[in-house]
Structures are given as C-alpha cells and as structure tokens.
Design brief:
This protein has about 700 residues and is of the alpha+beta class. It contains 16 helices and 40 strands. Helix 1 (about 5-25) crosses helix 2, helix 3 (about 160-170) crosses helix 5 (about 205-215) and helix 7 packs across helix 8.
Amino acid sequence: MVMPGGAAQLLEMLERSGESERGTTGVVPAPRRPQHRRERTAAGSDADVLVLPETGAARVAGPPAPQRLAGLVTEPVLEPVAGHLAGPFAAAPPSTTTAAATTTTTTTTTAVMRGQRIRVLALVAAAGLVAAAWSGVSTRLADRVPDGTTVAGVAIGGLDRTEAVTLLARMLEPRLTQPLEVRLDAPLAQGRTTAIDPAVADLRLDAAATVSRAIGPVGLPTTLWHQLSGRGAVEPVLRGDPADLASAVERAAVALDVPPTEGSISFASGAPVVVPPVEGAALDRDAAADLVRRAWLAGPGEAGGERPLALPATSAAPHVSADALAEALRTQAAPAVAGPLTVVVGERSVVLPPAAVVPALSVGADADGLRLHVDGAALAAAVATADPSTLTPAQDARLDTSGAVPVVVPAVPGAEPDPQALAASAAEALVASGDERTARVATRAVEPALTTEALTAMGITTLLGQVVSPLTADPARTQDVTVAARALDGAVLAQGQSLDVGARLGEPSAEAGWVPAVVVVDGRATSTLSAGTTQVASAVHAAAYAAGLQVDARTAPESWNPRDPVGLDAVVEPDAPLQLSEVAGPGAVLRVEVVDGALRVQVWGPAGRTVTLSTSPATDVRTAPQLSDPSPRCVPQPGMDGFTATVTRTITPQGGQPATDDLVTTYAPRAAITCTAAAVGGLPPSLD
C-alpha cells in the first residue's frame, strides 16, 4: 500500500522510537502454552491432564465425582501425576491424595497468575512505546506549519513558526493601513460605495496567534492529522476594540444607507393624491462589522476578497404605512378641498375657494399620527390677496431729505391675521362641513423692522457723500434704473451692519417692474432686463466710498465707461457682489432716486468726520485697438484705452488721527468698432 508522505514519516518515527525502547528494556518473551494429554491416575482410572510448562505440575482436566462430607460437597481433587512433579513437590508421598491435589492446585494458580502479569506488562510496555513515539512526533512538529496552509492568500505551509510570523507581518500588515472599499448589498443601493477608514477601525494583525492557530495545539489528533494531510486556508487573528470597528462601520452606513421614501399626500393637481411609501435599505451594522473583520485581509479569489466588499443590508421600513395614508386621505385631505373655506378676520369675512386654500395644505406625521397641516402665513397671504383690507403692512421709519435738513418720518405698526391662530382654526374648519367650514381669527400688531427710536438714535444729520450720474435717452433703460433705485432707496446701515446691494436689488423680473432694454456687448445689440445696473452699482459705490463707508466687496468693470467715476465704478452680478458696511459711526442711510434725468445717490450720516479723495493720473496706458465690422448687425462702439487708476481716500474723525487707504483699479482696453454696412436709424444703444 502506498502511504502519504506524512504517514510514512510517522511510521518511520514510530519504528525508531520502538527500537530505542527495546534497546533499553529488552524483549519480553511470550509465555508458553500448557500441554494437554490423557494419562492414568494412581487410582487406576484415565483422566485428561494439563501439564504446566513453568512447573511441570499436572492438573486433572475433567471433574471427578463430588464427595459429600457431613452434608457438604467438596471441591474436585487434583491428583499428582507420576513423573510430572518438580521442585519441592517431588518429595511428597504419592499416597496422600488430598495433599497432592492441594499442591497441584496452588502450583497451577501461581503459574496462571504469573502468565497474566507477563501479558499485562507486555501491553503496558507496548503502550509506553506508542506514547513515547506520539510525544516525540508531536514535539518535533510543534513549530512547523502544516503543508498547504495559507492565510489571506499568503502561503506559509512548511515554514517554521518564526518564518511564518515574519512573512505574515510583512505581507498582511500593510493591507490594514489601506481603506477598505465597501458597498451595500441591496438593489436600491446600486452605485453607492464608500471606504472604511483604517485609522478609525484600528484593526491590528496578531501574526503570532495566527501561526499558532495554523499549527494547532500540541498533542491533539487533529493537529497530527493536519501535519500529515495538510491544512488549507486559515483565518487571520485580528485584534482591536469592537467599539472602534463599530464606529467605522457607522460612518460607512451614513454613505451607504438608502433611507425609505415616506409616503405623502400631494395637492399638486388641486385634488389630494396619495404618493405611496417606498422601503429603503440599511446597513446591518453588527453583521457588517463581523464581515469587515473577517474579510479585510482576504485576498483575491478568497471568500470576502471581492472589492468593493458587499456588506449585508436590511430593509428600512417607512414610518407611515400605505394604509395610514389611505385613511388620512379619506378622513382629512379629501374633506379639506371638498368646498370653500370662509375666513373671518375681525369684521371682515373672506370666502376662499379650494384652489386658493390648496397651496397652504399638507399632510404630515406627528406624535399622534398623520395630521392635516395648514401653513398659516400662506393662508394669510391668500386672504390678503382676496381682500387686501385684512392686512395692513407695517411701515419702517424713514429719512426725509427733501428739505433743508433731514427729518425722521415715524414708523407705523401694521396689522395682520395671526398666522398660528389662523392655521389652527382652519385645520378644524377644513374637515367640517356646511356652516362649520369657517375659520375665525383676530389680527395681531406687526412691528416695523426699523423703529422711529432706532433711526433717531443714529443722529443722522449730514450728507456724507453724493454722486449724480446722467441717464441716457432710452426710456426702457431709464425704467430699469428707476426700479433699481426704488429697491435701494432708504436702506439703513446700522453700525456693524452690511448692505449687499445685489441681494437688495433681487433678481430682475417683469413682475418686479423691469423691462427689456438694449445694450451693446462687443459691437452687438443685446436685449436684457438688467440694463443700467452697472451705472447704479457704480454710483452707489462711489458715494459710499466718498462718505467713508467700508467697502467689503467690490468688482470693477472690465473697461472704463466715461459715464462712471474713474477708479470708483463697480458691477453687480451673482459672482461679483457689492457689499458695504458702516463701522465708524452709529449708522448711515442710503437715498437713491431718479431726479431730472439723472441718477442721484446720497449717503447720510452723523456729523463728525471729514473725507477727502484724490485720483492719480492714469498709468500703464494701453491703446484701444481699431476694428471694422461689415455685419449688418454691427453697432458702432467707441474705443477706450486700458489703464490703471489709483484713488486715495483720507478719513479724519472728529478729534482723531487721519487714516489713508488706496483703491487701485486696472481697466482693459476696449476696441473701437467701426461699422462698414449701411447705418440703421434709431437711438444708439448704451454700453450698459
């Protein structure tokens, strides 16, 4: 029979161990068997006789008839056989039957016991040989990794303990410093991946314990079997705080979890419709942590070796069931739009059709379940639209500069339906029917944003800065400038408060009063809603700079327009804000108006500081190029040289030291465009 290499080695070791034991103790001979024959006894009868080889004693094999003495049955009597007695029994008189039998029985028993002891000793000796051989083999293999052993794809079979520990540390420890790419094993999470941070997970390889696991405990049959047949893949031993690993998995869950889509009731079409909920998918935190620990070091082709590693998921149920939504639709949403709603504000009564109420409605979950919610502010706006007399807007305090000295015009409080009270009353009325579909609410006072006391406390008495910029003859452009001026007029800058000019202007729209106007861009006429905003921004910046306000953000136009103050112009665009603030005085007020065909910007504030401006001659002058354009769409454009201008400002507070700052602006040259096609009549458009 052909044996595996490991089995052959074991048998060879067993044989060597057995030879060693025999050399020390000697060979134990096997006991000889008793001889059986038939002979005639002294009484003249035939009997079967056993002759013991150790003593020569004879024993009657067949039992004689029992003898009765005083009612007792005696044991069978052994008689000596002539010529077969040895030792001290040879001199005994053969005529004494009982003594001979007793002697024969004793001798026979002693011989049998001696044979049994010899057999026991032989078995013990053999067991000792096997144990010694087993111990020797186990000890010799205690530091050897079984053939075929791998750990995370690293082969360590056949290496001794030290070599295996060194190899595992060198090959596997760097893997634990690399992020582990993972994904959520759920159809809803397709494409969602993230990486687990090794610094947070803080897993560490115990290479020594891993090798000990691969070798196995010394002396166990399974350990010897692995040494003979090979081991295969062994899971590495990783150390770390479970709380750290749980924290790393939780961070991954933030990126991997697919939250459920809560169902809702939509009023988008005017009629309430249930939008059903959709289950989500969530990372199974505990199972994921266990898999991450087992698979972080897994190599390609091994279980858990795929990247990104698929982590187990569980379903994430929505908080509100589809049945609950259907019930809310039947009992709340549908009745809410079943008819008009009457709103009584003070003495005024307003009837709102369902279409006017719907924008203020929604259905959401709270501690008591699904509820119909009413946006009080939106419903109040609907009431004010239907009947403006139900709402009185508050009026801020303002500065009247039409006379010789500025005058504070007092603020006026407003009145409006209480939004919270209106929402609560309407929520009850909307699920009622008939005359009960009436919401009653009182008005509340609305305080102005700028009170009379606040504006008066600023002590605004002095015109600090002013710019007057002529407008073009284009009425559309003048309209847009007027809309912008109204949006900025009256802006108040309290001390430390910033004014964002673009945010205050808002997005130009037809609803806000802006109209399309034509401007010239690179020799072409272009229609825009924001014509004139650069002129407005430039005038505001120049007046604020002259008044000593702080300029927090400003972007100059690409080239200079002679209409605007040199070195002090500005643009207002989404990515180019104009921001101003008052840091020195208690406050300032901005007045922006269109007066007598010109834009006038004034900055008013308290007296007490002097501001002077000086502009240096142009430097770094670059000549404007001359271009001819044969296109019928050509619009003539005057050229403008590029240059750099520096404006120096000196601010001297009352009783304080002057402070100086420079504002440097560099303009690019603007090409002069000459149109060679036939001229088209009409007003020439503005550059802005």
